[in-house]
Amino acid sequence: MTIIRAVHKVEEGTSETAALHVTLAETGKTFPVQPHESVLAAALNAGIELAHECKTGFCGSCRVRVLAGGVAYADDPIGLSDQERGCGFALACQARAQTNLVIEAPLMPTDRPEPSQITAQVLAVDQVCGDITRLRLSPVGGMPAFLPGQYVDVVTQSGATRSFSIASAPDETMIELHIRTIPGGMFTAGIVPALKCGEVVALHGPHGLFRLRLDDFRPLVLVATGTGIAPLRAMLAALKGDPDCPPVALYWGMREESELYLADEIATLGAALEDFTFVPVLSRAAESWSGRRGYVQDAVLEDLPDLSEHALYLCGSPAMIGAARGRFLEAGASVNHIYVDSFHFAHNL
């Protein structure tokens, strides 16, 4: 059934501004949606916490399945692949109802720790390679509760916030952030290089729906580009010592060998798992590089042409996320077992 781009026909003499209704198939609960509202905004206004994250159409966290009715978009959202559209999925944060709708929609998970204000002292500021800094922080009063894969906001003195994934596991004693310098960035190029050990940093969190699903026993495929390795490092550290840990394969895309700043540590963490594979992939490798070359998603598909039984965690650049999501679905991946954290950099970061 084609549901995307469906046209809502208005009968002569009726008002185009009349509210339509959205029904949740799981519960039968109904809420109104105005023509100018997204499905997500209407749900939140009605007190219904549909799952969501970025609200910009990038991350795909607000994906719903339209069982009846039609929606339209002002602009095609990046976080929805053609394969997902063909299966009847829509992004609630961007979709406008064109008719009354019946949808299957996940709600915000109840197992997420509540975000709070966190005060932390700087333990170390290390430039690990090129433009990447490894910032280690000691939370005052002990580690806050968070799930591997989540992120925190760093709060500057002006009140501006900058979001970074937590690279440490919940049972570790510090919060670790991997920060790529953005040329001219107020925070990454201005504040971070000037931080000194002992200084106090304000954080808020944890945030995010990207998290390790410990109740999913599918083999794990972790795929990262750049500092997208940070939350995957947290997941690896959290899996250490888990007797029920499924097989784990981690693919990390970088440009050059010198940028693989976490390679030795990943190998050490992986050695604690019963079945672990680590595949670094370089897009601009020197002739001396004997490992894999090209794009990280291509390497995954070369090794695993059938992804129908895997859980996939993707973190990194929007280009990688967009390309990988579509191709992985073509390779049989379950749309409900692809978890995404897409990085988007503000020019003044």
TrEMBL record:
Cofactor(s) needed for function: [2Fe-2S] cluster
InterPro entries, alphabetized: 2Fe-2S_ferredoxin-like_sf, 2Fe-2S_ferredoxin-type, 2Fe2S_fd_BS, Beta-grasp_dom_sf, Cbr1-like_FAD-bd_dom, FAD-bd_FR_type, Flavoprot_Pyr_Nucl_cyt_Rdtase, FNR_nucleotide-bd
Gene3D superfamilies per record: 3.10.20.30, Nucleotide-binding domain of ferredoxin-NADP reductase (FNR) module, Translation factors
Matches recorded under Pfam families: FAD_binding_6, Fer2, NAD_binding_1
Signal peptide: none
Recorded GO MF terms: 2 iron, 2 sulfur cluster binding; oxidoreductase activity
Superkingdom of the organism of origin: Bacteria
UniProt domain FAD-binding FR-type: residue ranges: 115-213
Domain 2Fe-2S ferredoxin-type: 20-109
Protein name: Multidomain oxidoreductase
Source organism of the structure: Celeribacter baekdonensis B30
